[in-house]
Amino acid sequence: MSTHSFAHLETLSVSIDQKIAHIELSRPAELNSMNHAFWQELPETVHHIDDYSLARVIVISAQGKHFSAGLDLEVLHNLDKHYTGEPARRAEKVRRMVLGLQESFTALEEIRIPILVAVHGGVIGGAIDMICACDCRYATQDSFFTIKETQLGLAADVGTLQRLPKLMSPGFVRELTYTGRNFTPKEALQHGFINGIYTDKEAMLDDVMRIAAQIAANSPVAVTGSKAMLNYARDHTVADSLNYMATWQSGMLQMPDIQTALHAEKTKTPPVYAELHPKKD
């Protein structure tokens, strides 16, 4: 993307208002299944928003009846072409293909700003991989979740098996993975996967946008630092994480945003923070 226009996207619809970027999966007729274009457009879009500091928080939702049916069958049918030729080179090619798909969702963790995802209807297969990489998850009461891959003859390979056991009880994740059964938003809430359940999509988006606005009102330096530290702590020991936190603060703990926050608290006025510097000019 060379400009800030998102009109060229085939699988996503993007709007930005009040420092909140709203990304919608926009292939409702295809149940927002993840075709070849999607795997390119999603990481490029979130990186573009982050690179140019276009927003302070991202909300992801979907158009149509379902959030996403997961990997488009077109992609699965095309797998055959990767299984030809000499075994070692074939395996190396498949490994690069899987790593590329993984990077599409790892981008959601790598960017500096939080991502809230609001789901409804079916959240299936690759859609679980995707929302696992988001910061917070919200669902309607008619939603359902499925780790579908075992029923398709393969192991989930784009993040579910790595991220979900750190979000839900591991034994429950194993049950869901091995059986491939649907699980309900009530189960997802009970096991810590989602933050809340809503009566319908409109009510959910209203509340998620309210939460996003609260995030956007805070210091972007404090928010990005918190995201970085939470992700680091998830993957490291407490001692290592505390040590990294001290190192982070030695450079990032500066007074301007603190003074802005204290002044806003004292005067009962909204704080006004400078944006993060863009990564790209």
**CATH level 3 topology of the largest domain:** 2-enoyl-CoA Hydratase, Chain A, domain 1
Sheet with most strands: strand arrangement: 1-2-3-4-6-9
CATH architectural name of the largest domain = Alpha-Beta Complex
SS-derived structural category: alpha/beta
Uncertain runs are none
Q: Could you give the count of β-strands? A: 9
SSE run = EEHEHHEEHEEHHEHEHHHH
* Helical fraction: 40-55%
Tally of domains: 2
Count of helical segments?
A: 11
Portion in strands: 5-15%
Major β-sheet, in short?
Answer: 6 strands, mixed
Distance between the termini: 13 Å
Task: Tell me what you see in this structure.
With 281 residues, the chain is of the alpha/beta class. Helix content is 47%, strand content 14%. The chain folds into 2 domains: 12-216, 2-enoyl-CoA Hydratase, Chain A, domain 1, CATH 3.90.226.10; 220-267, Lyase 2-enoyl-coa Hydratase, Chain  A, domain 2. It has helices at 36-51, 73-77, 87-110, 126-132, 160-163, 170-179, 185-190, 201-216, 220-235, 238-252, 255-267, and strands at 12-17, 20-25, 57-62, 115-119, 122-124, 136-140, 144-146, 182-183, 196-198. The protein has a 6-stranded mixed sheet with strand order 1-2-3-4-6-9, with helices on both faces. Strands 5-7-8 form a 3-stranded mixed sheet. Strand 1 (12-17) and strand 2 (20-25) form a beta hairpin. The longest helix is centred in the middle third of the chain and has 24 residues, at 87-110.
